[in-house]
Amino acid sequence: MDINFSSLHPELLFALISGKLSAAVNRRLYRAFRQQGIEITPEQWTVLYYLWTRDGVTQQELCISTFKDKPSMTRLIDNLEKLHCVQRVASKADRRINIIKLTPRGKELEQESKPLVFSVIREALADLSQEEINVSYRVLIRIFENLRSSLESK
Q1: pLDDT, tens digit only, all 154 positions of the chain
Q2: Which of 1, 30, 104, 116 is exposed most, by the fewest CB atoms within 10 A?
Q3: By the 8 A CB rule, do 43 and 30 touch?
Q4: Of 82, 91, 80, which is closest to residue 49 (Cα–Cα)?
Q5: In angstroms, what CA-CA distances link 4 with 13, 15, 18?
Q6: Do 112 and 36 contact (CB within 8 A), yes or no?
Q7: SS3 85
Q8: CA-to-CA distance for 103 and 65, rounded, in angstroms?
Q9: CA distances from residue 29 to 48, 58, 114, 116, 122 in whole angstroms, order as listed
Q10: Residue 69: CB partners within 8 Å, gap ≥ 6?
Q11: Residue-range domains of the chain with CATH
Q12: 3-class state of residue 97 by DSSP
């Protein structure tokens, strides 16, 4: 497929896709968390969000589902343990494998933080029509899937 860059600003498109948008959202979330006294980072929230849907998973599953490498995930889990949000439990089947489980504090954070995150998302999508949101969502999912499949095949 040929892309007509004449109507686009390739450097802006690249900046948005490569992290500028993500960095802006993360900064806004970080500020919102601090204003509400929630002492987690947006990265930590992503791990917690996955655990709220599937508590008791391996560290490897968290790496795959959040697109984080093993050292980054180890650091995230270490910090979430220090905040008493998660705990590592040795797998009964294989003690070399850690199962990551939510603590009561980790479970409480779901009720405290989800409305705040959804509010930031609504703020980011303000002034967009539902059609624009739907199209953008589908396009971003396709871009992500294109890249994910190329990364997984290598």
Answers
A1: 555 656 666 666 666 666 788 899 999 999 999 999 999 999 999 999 999 999 999 999 999 888 889 999 999 999 999 999 999 998 888 878 889 999 999 999 999 999 999 999 999 999 999 999 899 888 888 888 888 777 665 4
A2: 1
A3: no
A4: 80
A5: 13, 18, 19
A6: yes
A7: coil
A8: 20
A9: 14, 26, 11, 8, 12
A10: 63
A11: 38-120 (1.10.10.10)
A12: coil
**57-58 vs 86-90, strand pairing mode:** unpaired
Q: Which token pair is 54?
A: 């599937």
Residue-wise burial string across 66-83, b where 16 or more C-beta atoms lie within 10 A, e elsewhere: eebeeeebeebbebbeee
Q: Are strands 57-58 and 98-102 parallel, antiparallel or unpaired?
A: antiparallel
Give strand ranges (E) for the chain: 57-58, 86-90, 98-102
Q: What is the pTM of this model?
A: 0.83
From first CA to last CA, the distance across the chain in angstroms is: 22
And the tokens for 150? Answer: 């190329």
- The C-alpha atoms of residue 66 and residue 41 are separated, in whole angstroms, by 14
